[in-house]
Amino acid sequence: MSARRTHRRLGARWRRRRPLRTRLAVAASAAVALVAVCVCVASFFVLRYKLYQQLDQNLAQTATLVAQQHEYDKDYGVLTGECRFLGAPACSQIVPADAADDPKKPYLLPVSGPTRQVAAGELAPYYTSFTLPDGKPGRMLTTHYGKGAAVQVAMRADIAERGVRQTAAILAVVGGAGVLLSAVGGYWVSRTGLAPVARLTATAERIAATRDARHRIELPPGPPERTGRDRKWGRFGRGGGGEDEVTRLATAFNTMLGELEESVAARRRLVADASHELRTPLTALRTNAELLARADLLNKAQRDRASGALARQLREVTGLVNDLIELARDEEPLPLVEDVALAPLVGHVVEAAREHWPGVVFVLDVSPDAAGLTLPGVPARLARLLTNLLDNAAKFSPPGGVVEVGLSAAYLTVRDHGPGISPEDLPHVFDRFYRAEKARALPGSGLGLAMARQIARAHGAELSAEQAPGGGALFRLTLR
């Protein structure tokens, strides 16, 4: 048992140390070689069986002929002594069941105990291979001959023996050639079959060395219905029927590289935009801090104005940093997820918005089918989503304007009656740090709507923006 375990460990260690190409070549070669050897061995035994079957049929015919010619002859002993190739007359003799009835002249063919048993009817006829007195190979049939006797007929088996040897030699050459061809074929299969994997490995190593995700695996031409995005990432269309497993692996790798490139580009844009947005408030903070450092040169009004500006800018920077931290979170923490009742949550957020924006009128309309509506999520994050939407709507509403909040079983809508969203700004309202020309004079960092969409998608919902009928902007949260 220990020797078997040691052998298995050595085999597993050999497989781990060998590259995949070598293991694939060995496996393919071994499979083809095994098939070739099995075919050759099976062919050898079939041909050998057929050769001896023909010889045995001739012996059976000869035995029948001898029995017919000597039907009433009870003289025991040798009948004919000529053993020819597959022809009659063959060596033949009649043997009694009792050795006491043997003739004085010795037998030409070997007589044994089974021969007496066949003569006595105790054993079925049988074939044997033996050596003739002249040293040639022979084949003998021992069968019944009347009552109490057996007849033995024999022929030379030179042709059958020579055919068996020639068959063995030919099949050995064929088997050896098959093993050699299987080795060549296994190497070719491993080399061509793993070529895309080798290209994939080289591309991955190049990306790891250069940190450039723009590289792609070269794929075979796809079907004509491939779309522009599929061609960009190297993906086949749904109708592509010539896509094998390795091509699918390369396609998936190209898709992953495309997503990685987009992620890296988005991260770089976020860092660049954040550094740009932070530069102005940090500069103002440094200026006000330097002013306060020379407070003895300022009068009380100037000190109060500098202190107020410093506190306001600190709040802006703190809010901006907190927003960036929130945007860096891709998923909601699972331990905090619960079934959130939306109607009470929306009502609470609207009440808070009324206190924060006393100059704006907030109108809440909850449909009867949404009174018991729940959504799996984090209550604080959903409240932040609604707060951002209401703050955005209040920011663009005129004094005394109305913000309409509606909740149904499928949607949550927030509509204001402000200037609305221009067509050129509509595709970018959820981009980070994007601020329309009308909003650049208003407070904010341009992260509120981006954060709202991220929270919505993290909860399985989708947030969209559109022009409201009659003017203003309409934000629609589509629920699951």
UniProtKB/TrEMBL annotation:
Keyword Phosphoprotein on this protein? yes
Give start and end of each HAMP domain: 191-265
Q: Which residues form a coiled coil?
A: none
PANTHER family according to UniProt = SENSOR HISTIDINE KINASE TRCS, SENSOR HISTIDINE KINASE YKOH
A single GO molecular-function term is:
phosphorelay sensor kinase activity
Question: What are the subcellular locations of this protein?
Answer: Cell membrane
InterPro entries found in the cross-reference section? HAMP_dom, HATPase_C_sf, HATPase_dom, His_kinase_dom, HisK_dim/P_dom, HisK_dim/P_sf, Sig_transdc_His_kin-like_C, TCS_sensor_his_kinase
Q: Where does the record place the Histidine kinase domain? A: 273-480
Origin, by domain of life?
A: Bacteria
For this protein, the Enzyme Commission number is: 2.7.13.3
Query: What keywords tag this UniProt record?
Result: Kinase, Membrane, Phosphoprotein, Transferase, Transmembrane, Transmembrane helix, Two-component regulatory system
EC supergroup of this enzyme: transferase
Region (Disordered) location: 216-240
Its name, as the record gives it, is histidine kinase
